[in-house]
Every structure is written in C-alpha cells, then in structure tokens.
Amino acid sequence: MRRTLAALVMVALLPGGSGCSFLLVKGPPPIEEQAGPLACTDSFGSPIVDAVFAAAFAATGVHQAMRDDVDAYFEGARRNSVIAAAVGAAALAASSYYGFSRTHACRKAIERAIALPPPGAAKPTAD
User: Fold this and answer.
1) CA–CA separation, 56 and 95 (whole Å)
2) Residue range 79-107, pLDDT digits in tens
3) In this predicted model, which residue has the larger pLDDT, 72 or 14?
4) CA 34, CA 59: separation in Å to the nearest integer?
5) 121: burial class by Cβ within 10 Å (0-12, 13-18, 19+)?
6) CA 94, 83, 14, 45 torsion: positive or negative?
7) pTM for the structure as a whole
8) What is the b/e burial string over 45-58, where b = at least 16 CB atoms within 10 angstroms of the residue's CB?
9) Of 32, 71, 98, 109, which alpha carbon lies 20 to 30 A from 43's?
10) What are the residue ranges spanned by the domains of the chain?
11) Which residues are CB-neighbours of 88 under 8 A, at least 6 positions away?
C-alpha cells in the first residue's frame, strides 16, 4: 500500500511539476530586436524547481534499483519504475538546463541593455 501511494504521489506531481522551465521561462529576443525594456525571465525559480524534481526522480530510481527485497513476481514492476524514474529525471534535468541557460541569457541581455547609452544620446569623443 505504501509503495502504491508513493507511486500515485509521483504521478500526480509529474504534470504540475515537470517541465516548468519549458513552459514558463522566456529567453531574451535576438539582439537586433532588443529595444526598450526586455520581456524575458530573469528568475531562477522554475529551473530550481525542475532540478529539485529531477533529483527526487533520480533518487527514487536509485532506491528502486538497489532494493533487494522484491520477489520475482514484482521484478518487472521494479524494472518499470526504475525506467520511469530515469525518464522523468532526464526530462526534468533537460527542462532545468533549458531554464538556467535562458535565464542566464536574459540576465546578460539586461546587463548589456543597462550598459548601452540611451538612443539619441551623444557619443563620447576622444580628446
């Protein structure tokens, strides 16, 4: 019963917690389109959530793989749960990587935008 409950909790959390970065993180527009305030994600919140879920899925898979108290009847179910945990961890890790890279690119674009003089400003001359 406890294993079934744990599996149900994982399945219930998967749609709500998986791939936040793929859905919620927006990278900066191309450099030639960057004018005015940038509308991109500069918060690491979603990638961190994805990384935490990826670690939880990976830990679950390792735990299931290392168990030796499973009889032959449940061996197939154990193998399937290890595969499912590995696939979930890989998908969440990919989403986390995507989120961190897009967020980093957004922060760099914001830094560049702050460093540039405003349009129409006089350019400094060398004396």
Assistant:
1) 15
2) 888 999 999 999 999 999 999 999 999 99
3) 72
4) 41
5) exposed
6) negative
7) 0.73
8) ebbbbbbebbebbb
9) 32
10) 17-28+39-115
11) 10, 14, 18, 53, 54, 57
